[in-house]
Amino acid sequence: MKISVEEGQEKGFLSDGRHTVEITGIEEGKSENQGIPYFAARMENEEGFVLQRFYLSDAGRPVIMGLYEMVGIEPKAGHDLDTKQLIGKKLSVEVGDYTYNDPNSGSERTLRQASHFQRV
Length: 120
Hints:
Blueprint: E1 17-30, E2 37-45, E3 48-55, H1 61-70, E4 90-101, E5 108-118
Antiparallel strand pairs: 1-2, 1-4, 2-3, 4-5
């Protein structure tokens, strides 16, 4: 079997710990369980990457505002934020695993995630 490697797929996940990363891409979608809109930011450096989802919900809004602030974009009432503004921005993130129970199957799932955003 041959496995093709596309541009950007040559890296593995970032290891646990704090990393300085650049946001290199944004994907948009809806959650599998409740259909909540989200954007996923690909954050990477020379060592690897992490893909972090940001949900457009009441609970997720403070996290999104914090992300924008950490990359130097000040959210202002009455002005829309464009996720494309995030591409090319750098920040420091804490990378680790997050384990939860899947609401559909009840089985345990583990995701690699970025959290505790800081300015660089």
